[in-house]
Amino acid sequence: MTDDPDAPDLGSEHLITRVEAGVLHVRIDRTERRNSFTQDMYRGLKRAAVWADRTATIDALCLTGTDEWFGAGGDMGGNSADRETLAAEWDPTDHFPFRHFERCRKPIVTAVNGVCQAGGIDLVLYSDVSVASDRATFRVPELLRGAPDAWMSARLVHQVGLAKAKYLYFTAARFDAAEAEAMGLVGKVVPHAELDDHVAWVLEQIRLTGPVSRALVKADINGRLPAPDAKMFAATIMSPEMVEGMSAFLDKRDPVWPRSHDA
Prior knowledge:
single chain; six-stranded mixed β-sheet
């Protein structure tokens, strides 16, 4: 006998869900596009946090990827959401999942199995416990696309420190799992073959803690963090600079940045 509820439909075929032992597991599965996120997928991850928060028998949400990919950031190839249903939200205040990850009273665990960059790093930053495979790699490429990510800038400094955050942002350098652990981006790195077992242990430990107390501690910690400046991102959408950055990415060339103050 089990008290586990049925797993929710998150509205994207690329988010595979199951519920086991009081944990909602979500696996990102869009490997043909390097697990890049459509708006439907971001919305689905937000729904996962909302559902976990609302469901009394759920103690945690666990997120991972497929094969060599965890998450490569937003899809820049024009693949977006079902526009007819984009406004039909369980919580319509934000189409991205990051702040909902922090608002969710249940701990959110990210199991970083492979390539993690851009929005994938945001998921790690806004989760509560992060465990990475020693095969995982990381990158902050936003400025190469002309896309100032307000969610990342609001958290990266607190996670890794000012000097390291600026280095990662302004160089877009790739770094490995050992470096990610050393700088404090992830909580633990384990051999790839041990990732699933260690994450299972982490989830077991979480379920041993008092649900009210852990929710209070999470709220207290997150309440001290600055609010992301979402207006910064919104003001740059489809600006000449962002258009050039995305076009250069799709064309696999170096960007030629517009230099006017209106860019």
